[in-house]
Structure formats: structure tokens, C-alpha cells
Amino acid sequence: MTTTTLRGCGTALVTPFQPDGSLDEPALRALVQWQLAAGVHMLIPCGSTGEAVTLASAEHRRVVEITVEEVNGRVPVIAGAGSNDTQRAIATSREMRSIGASHLLHVTPMYNKPPQRALLAHFRAIADACDLPIMLYNVPGRTAVNMEAATTLELARDPRFVAVKEASGSLAQMTTILRDRPPQFAVLSGDDGYTLSLMAHGGDGIISVVSNVAPSLMVQLCDAMWRGDLAAARALDATLAPIIDACFVESNPIPAKAMLAVMGRMQERVRLPLVPLADALRPRVRDVLVRAGLLAS
């Protein structure tokens, strides 16, 4: 099992689609290379931002395969493998291992609403079945279940669980985990807007939606916090704030894909039940890119 420390800016990659709805493999390869050139520290294919729930199994495999190929060992590839069916999560985990992912991302099961003891059983069953290190993912806004700090900390004592992507929206919960975690267990924000605050409390970085659009800025923010340059970090946070807001004016990844399309990096294609960005929001999305210097006026 790899012991790579997960820290810095990790991009939760969008999944580019062709006009006919199929995977846009050239756009995905180009996106990965752009992220690497910007200095991103981790890549996370097939998570929430990657519309994993609407990918067929073969598509899921192909997205991770392409990411692994393009990365070629330069940064960790943390493959989304979560499911609300534990056996399906195990099967996906084994497949992600077979194609070269370095880590797994496992979200709390959605819809079932398991109690905390069931979360422990679910994640331990996955770890027992597949020997890749696991990043836990807590996002109650999507799953309807919050993984409490005590549950995260119990799993953190098991070296098979190496990190948590914390998107509870509760800084108090995040700081509780930070205070009591084992030294090698990474705590990363799952919300772009908490990056500075979490890192100021000793957190390890961000699994970012916004770095799809502004990878260099998010990397610079993490780097500034690492070296203790709070003035630079505040300035970067202020630059990023309008982009962060724009990335969530509708459900993720609708706005991010609209931005990437405006920037000429991929087609603006999402899969139902998501739909393209509302026309009324397009001027705002374009304006924040222009003001941040990411798009010519």
C-alpha cells in the first residue's frame, strides 16, 4: 500500500462529453495535462463533479484509465469508487486498482441513510476487500447522511484510511477532526470556500471544483498557506471568491462546464438529470472569468 501524503490542491475532474453524449477523450486528456502543467497536486476522476452516477461502468473505467495514462505517476490519482451498495463499491474499487489508480475516493452511501455504525461497517468492508488506501468523502448535502467527527476519527486510526474530503459545511466538525486525528491522516476541504480557513487551522488542502477552471490560482493559494504567507493567501482568496460563487450558482458541475466551454477547453455537455447553465446566468459566469484574468474581454 502506498503511503503518499495527500496534501495541497486536488482537482475533482469534470468529465467532458461529446455533442452526441459520449466521452470526449481528447478533451479529457487535454484537461489532465493542463492541470498537471498548473502544478495541481492530486487528480480525482469520477467523483461528484465527474458525474460518476451517470457514467456506465465501461465509461467510468475509461475515464480513470485515461487519467492514469496522462498522469504517468506524477501525482496521485484518487479514483471515485463510491456506491450506496457496498458490494458494488467493492467491485469498482478492485477495478480501479487493476487499472492503476493510486488511491480510492469513497463517499458515504447516499439514499440508504445508514447510521454511524453502518458507515463503519461499509468502509471497513471495502478496505478488507481492496488494498488501495482510501480517502473518505463526507458530503451530507448530497448523501443525506453526515459522517460525524467521531466516526471519521475512528476510521482514521486504521492506516488503510489515509484522508477525508470534508464537505459537511461545518468548520467546527472539521477542526474537531484536525485536533484529534493521527499525524498521517490528511484532512482536506471538500468546499472551495473553506480552503483558507481549513488550512489556517492546520488542514492539508482542498479537493476542488474551482481548480477545473482556475488550477493555478488554487495551487497558489495552497502554496501560500503552506509557507505561512497569509497576506498572499488572503489576496488569492479574494480573487477566487467570485469564481467560487459562480461555480455554484447552479448544481455542480453545470457552471464549471459552462466556464470551461467559454474558455474553449471542452463542449458544454452535461448528462440528464443535469441540464446546461441557465441563459440568465451566462453573463455572470463570463464576467468572473474576465475579471480574474482567465478569459479575454
Automatic annotation (TrEMBL):
Family: Belongs to the DapA family.
Annotated positions binding pyruvate: T49, I207
The protein's annotated pathway: Amino-acid biosynthesis; L-lysine biosynthesis via DAP pathway; (S)-tetrahydrodipicolinate from L-aspartate: step 3/4
EC number(s) given by UniProt: 4.3.3.7
Record carries keyword Kinase: no
Keywords, alphabetical: Amino-acid biosynthesis, Cytoplasm, Diaminopimelate biosynthesis, Lyase, Lysine biosynthesis, Schiff base
Record-given protein name: 4-hydroxy-tetrahydrodipicolinate synthase
One GO CC annotation: cytosol
Keyword Amino-acid biosynthesis: yes
Locations listed in the record: Cytoplasm
Pfam annotation, one family: DHDPS
GO molecular function, one term: 4-hydroxy-tetrahydrodipicolinate synthase activity
Record site feature (Part of a proton relay during catalysis), residues: S48, Y111
CDD domains (alphabetical): DHDPS
SMART domains, sorted: DHDPS
Subunit structure: Homotetramer; dimer of dimers.
